[in-house]
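cache lookup: miss for this entity combination. No prior model stored, computing from scratch. Input as submitted by user K.M.:
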Amino acid sequence: MGRKGTAWPLYSLVVNENLSTPLRPLSALPLGERSLVEAITDSAVLSRRLLEIGCIEGATVEVVASMWPGQDPLAVRIGGSTFALRRQEADLVMVR
Amino acid sequence: MRIALIGLPNCGKTALFNRLTGSRQKVANYPGVTVERKEGVFSDAKGELHQLLDLPGLYSFTPTTLDEAITRDVALGRLAGEPRPELIVLVADAMHLSLSLRLALEARRVGLPMLLAINRSDIARRRGFQLDLAALSRALGIPVIETVATRAGGADALVQTLEQHPWPKTSALEWQEPTALDVIAAHREVARLLTMAHHQEPARSAAVAAADRVLLHPIFGMLSLAVILFLVFQAVFSWASVPMDLIDAGVARLGELLVTQMPDGVLRSLLIDGVIAGLGSVVVFLPQILILFAFILVLEDSGYLPRAAYLLDRLMSGVGLSGRAFIPLLSSFACAIPGIMATRTIPSIRDRIATIMVAPLMTCSARLPVYALLIAAFIPDRDVGIFNLQGLVLFALYFAGIVSALLVAYVIKRWQGTSDQHLLMLELPDYQWPNPLNLLVGLYDRARVFLARVGGIILAMVVLLWFLSTYPAPPSGATTPAIETSFAGHIGKALAVVLEPIGFNWQIAIALVPGLAAREIAVGALGTVYALSGSEETVTGALAATISTEWSLGTALALLAWYVFAPQCLATLAVVKRETGGWRHPLMMATYLFTLAYVAAFVTYRLTLMLTGA
């Protein structure tokens, strides 16, 4: 953690203790709430690219912005980078 | 040595390329595709010359776009006609090391010797970045150095390593596409390597997050985008007027000089009426094109463009396009050709085709001279509220282009039927100050391409038009202007039969033909056709007066409506053919543009006749 802003590790070594929270898609994550990736629903091309940009189990994610209407697309912080994801893409990422 | 630069998009690879090669670079295309191939040369301290290839940015060797496929194929030596590089310089961004390192692990399996350049290390170190380069180098088994592409001398360490290191020969590894499990394993390996090399991640600037809270906001973000676009167009029109007047005056001076210095004759007529008037009318748009591209380059370099794509994705997905289409469409306001070439970053082939098909509907700068001429001649210069009527008409013409593009895209997507998986997945890189060297190199490229076009196809067409309008010479004692009996006169009168229902006379018909080479020639052509001569400036000035008495309002408005679609641009159609790999799409494009142009002009003409009671 830096003093100016925040630096996040790509993976957190902290085990997600709150296992009672149900699994939900990244697209359902409230704005500004940080969470950890649990799994990626398989969908050939999309899930492949999600893995490549660092969306793997244990990666820190946070929705930093979303468009109106229908919260689509989303701007998501994944590890140390920010990506614009369509809702359809964010639906594939399951977080707790 | 043949060296290839490989790296993630936005890693500063192109800045490093510009730093190393300066102006010693050439831009072309890879054989068979319109992916830009940027190559340059530089020499090391021993005077040895190296060829440097700037490959398109990629996230992995499992491509989702044409750009990424090219980079993989070049690295693997699979692209026909492109020799395999002998060394990879993998450019990593110190601000985001992990994704770069994962790419490096994949690139290592390609079987080429590799060097890891950690770029932007100056900014990163100021933000607390730490890394044991030697440890990382030992663990990876390749040299690791730091570069600062934006600073003079910032690539010296890279050049020194190139000289000193004994590079092994290319090994003949059998390439296998990594599986999803390989990808995950590589991420874990990166984490292990970084821990071992005592990596300290740089703190992210709080300003970036704060700026994004505004610029990505559904309301304030859209407002900011509107203001930015408004400023861009304002600048294109107001800042360009001074250099444009200078070019105009220079062309006029040159014409006058020739009039006084040369004997009257065929050669003087060719030079003044053909070459100077024709080329002058085109070169005058260079300032506007450069200003628009300067803005595009700055917006791109600063990291804003992908955010604009994010903001507009929803709107564009409404008609079936991806937000990624925003960047190519914005470039198309300067010229559809670079716009169409920029569609290569759109992953879905259908989205890409739809974007290509509507790109010519964005009002390119070549249509401006036609609009300017007609508006000056027919639209009264008076105020409507706080707006100027002429300005409003110009805005309406741009707007008509955008609206038709959305409609056409919608029809194309409906017609294409079931849609592909949509990938937006666009990185929003941290904002940074645009790099002046990148800007200069980019503008120099644009100016060169534009002027090459002026000296090539446009010059040829202008000379041809001059020839067709001058010969055969009229019979002695003829009272009609010479052009009526020339080849061009006959062609124009034949075409006028088809164009008469939409209000075009034979003079317009002639002017539309050379406009096939470049739309803006139509203005110069009309000047020639109305048997005027002299400098381009007096041509335009007198031409406006001539047509305002010769044409009806209906004809003028119909021609404006025609130019919203302006189907006649061979260069665009040629690029579409090369880009889509066949005649099908360019033919479809020409057909729909001609149809829309004809219908729009017809409706405009008839409505105006009805309303004015003529």
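stored under new cache key. Residues 18 and 65 of chain A are 25 Å apart (CA to CA).
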